[in-house]
Amino acid sequence: MRTQIILFTLVLMALFSSCKKDDDSTTPPLLHLQLGGAYVSNNAVLAINDTISFGVHAEGVSSNLTYFKVDVMSENGTSTIYDEGMNRKTFDATKIFFKGIPDEETFVITVMDYNRNTTSASFTVFRDTLSGFGPIYHFTNLVLGYQNNSASGHFLDPNTGIIYDDATVSGHESEVDIVVYFYLSSGSPSPTLVCPAQTDAQAQYPSMAGWPVQNATLYDYHTSDYDLISAAQFDECTSDSLLIAAYNPTYVNQKCKFALTGKIVPFLTAEGKKGLIKVVAADQAETGTMTIEIKIQQ
Q: CA 262, 266, 270 angle in degrees (round to 5)?
């Protein structure tokens, strides 16, 4: 009888331990930032537009990780510059951003699990007070043909203003950041800015799928959609100050739809150069053209 009591007690203890483990819904995720060395250091002093890279390792404890975001705090307030949903036990990534205009910026990295427990970590960077705004390239009257236009080139190097067609782009694929095409988006005409890495663009230009380099340009469609930068601001810009300030990494995509006449579209190239596109004219047919003006960091 004594043995039975002992066994019964052990079973109850095991069940209680198991229930306690299963009921663990409040333990927050683990989060580790990798800083220094190849990554940015905490309290680093950087020039405007310098690269800010850091590593992230996170683990869900009470449940899987479901959300990751990066906020930047400065004298201008707090803005979310990146977020990502997920459903995984661990998360490892290297993230790359760029130093903005504010004198001091604090990057706050947050992970959340399925039970909505969160863990955050942060680091701060400062602007080099000797760092001013940089020079820009300015190219006008750039005429790009849509996919069914055989008279005008489709592929643009924004650093030189050179436009390539199917015949001349060979050997210059790594220099192309901007491509255009036209389609109907839910029945509405959409002159569209894309890049070689964008899958829809590769469907329109199948040769790009075989390019040795397929650059991934990001377009800030939110600033474009809401006309947050005026044509007058674009025209008056003589340094990269507006280019840096205009680009909002929160709402970006490799495709910018409805790039209609008059739109101003901020963009970021694969090599980290920021720029602005002014759509001077945009035809609304697959055989038409888009005429643009560009300002980009040197």
A: 140
pTM (global) more than 0.85: no
Q: Please answer whether residues 119 and 111 qualify as being in contact, where contact means their C-beta atoms are separated by less than 8 angstroms.
A: yes
The C-alpha atoms of residue 193 and residue 90 are separated, in whole angstroms, by 35
For residue 122 the two structure tokens come to: 């942060």
Domain hosting residue 36, numbered range: 30-127
Give the Cβ contact number of residue 70 at 10 Å: 20
C-alpha closest to that of 292 among 135, 136, 144? 144
CATH number for position 111: 2.60.40.3880
Question: Per-residue b/e over 189-215, b at no fewer than 16 CB within 10 Å?
Answer: ebbbbbbbbbeebbebbeebeebeebb
259/279 Cα distance (integer angstroms): 7
pLDDT per residue as tens digits for the range 159-180 = 999 999 999 999 999 999 999 9
What are 123-156's pLDDT values in tens digits?
Answer: 999 999 888 899 999 999 999 999 999 999 999 9
Give dist(CA 44, CA 40) in Å, integer. 7
**Contact in structure between 252 and 236 (CB atoms under 8 Å):** no
In a domain, residue 5? The reply is: no
Question: Between the CA atoms of 164, 172, 178 and 220, what dihedral angle is there, to the nearest 10 degrees?
Answer: -170
C-alpha 133: how far from chain center: 22
Q: Are residues 110 and 237 in the same domain?
A: no
Burial (Cβ within 10 Å: 0-12, 13-18, ≥19) of residue 27 = middle
Contact in structure between 54 and 39 (CB atoms under 8 Å): yes
